[in-house]
Amino acid sequence: MAESEDKKQEQGGQSDGVLEIKNVTKRFGPHVVLDDVSLTIEKGKTTVVIGPSGCGKTVLIKHLIVLLRPNAGEVYFKKQRIDHLSESELSKIRTHYGFLFQGGALFDSLSVAENIMFPIRQHYKITNWSEAEEVVKTKLAMVGLDGFQNYYPANLSGGQRKRVALARAVALNPEVILYDEPTTGLDPIRSDVINELVLKLQRELGVTTVVVTHDMTSAYKIADRIIMLHNGKIVADGDAEHIRDHPHPVVQQFINGQVGEDDLAVLRMSGTISQAQFLPRDFE
Amino acid sequence: MIGIIGAKAVRGVNSVGQFGRFAWQAFGACLWSSLRTGTYPLIWAQMNIIGVKSVPVIMITGAFVGMTLAVQAYGQLAGMGLEEHLGVLINISVVKELGPVLAAVMLAGRVGGALTAELGTMNVTEQIDAVKSMGTDPIRYLVAPRVLACLLLTPFLIIYADLLGIIGGAFVSIVQLGINGRAYWEFSASGVELWDVTVGVMKGFFFGAAIAVISCYKGFTCKEGAQGVGQACTEAFVASFITILALDFALVVIFKAIYDTFWPFKSLVA
Ligand SMILES: Nc1ncnc2c1ncn2[C@@H]1O[C@H](COP(=O)(O)OP(=O)(O)OP(=O)(O)O)[C@@H](O)[C@H]1O
Ligand SMILES: [Mg+2]
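Output (structure tokens, whole complex):
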């Protein structure tokens, strides 16, 4: 029942898809990470991808910007096939994107201000530097970091780095923004500010948004549509309501943060193993 | 067994092909950057890092080569009573072979290692992907300035090595071994042609480009983790070193052919 409903939603989106992946399979050696996944991302909507750690969310979102190329299947941006383009052809397409890396990926040899200026300097000729500084200031203020212009990434906390990376990702006012775990490592208040920022960009600028997250509060707040990835397949696809009431046990476990029976069994087992089988170091 | 060898061969051919493509793209990116004034600050910054800071080591290398040659060759030549010819021997060796090759090897260690480590770290921390994600070609932004800086500066560094080699050799010969200074320089001048110096310095363009392209390639294809970066640096140095020697051989053959064809006409021109 849920299966057919998921299918229907998927096809409904086809007409207005900005990003589309068709039958994508991705393998690393023998390890199949994405198994024949198809997905259409609708224009101006926020699509949230959830799923357990290591299920391939990052791999999926990197395919949308072709930082990874599929072993089989196709990737489209505005109806144009992009997965087989050369890097220089991709460069042009990627100017329409903003991408927030899970690890930030700030340039550690550049200061915070230079990091945010980087995409701007690459694509525009800057004549008015005070205006450029103003842009950096507003982008940083958006993520609550005005005043950190001259810091280097090494001197920032993990959460601060993430926020600078976010400011950099939106620096060019892209049409499509892909966020890989924007709120991970942030305190609850700052997370909510980021949620509001994502919503604001989507509502005011009509940005097409894809967010990878584990954070269900954030997912429910920002999502027009939630997709759950499990074992290389999409197991659930629909709005927040649909996901909340999804019959699939894996989905219920994930959104409620419940540990599964098999994980519990492993924990019970490990409790019974005695440490005595290892001899103390000073035994001899 | 045959399967394993076959797989290895395929992988070998594959990586050669990959390197060839990378080198070709780097070449294209260098042409592109050299036509665009906007990229000059990047090249300039790399020149500072690569070139200026290498001058002291290169000078020390050159000086010791010259001095050592003087001591070694003196014994041989003095036995035949030819010690005044020492200058030719030292200066020809320094200018044609030892200066360029040792300077290049020094640079492969100093600059190549740093380039591989820098780009390798950028690769494993996704900074190269970040460059790509913002619509910039990392080969243009990261590789081209480094290759151009290396290519343009290596000849100058070779001149420094040559100069110090000549001074070092002369110092030991004239001051330490007591050879007549006038005779030393006169024999040197008659034995070393402008062509010899030019060939030595010209080699610098090829060595510089080879070091930078190989080191950048190794950085770009570096495996994950601290160990991956370390391994990439080692491989970059070994590959650069062998390439320098092989290139040197090839260039000597080519330049000799050019010399034999064109140099006789010099008297007609002059
Ligand atoms: N470059 C790679 N080489 C080999 N395997 C990889 C590579 N990148 C990812 N994988 C594998 O793909 C799987 C999915 O990785 P991915 O980073 O997409 O997980 P994720 O869903 O983003 O997890 P998390 O929520 O922890 O970030 C992992 O099991 C990982 O081992
Ligand atoms: Mg991830």
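Chain B has a mean pLDDT of 89.
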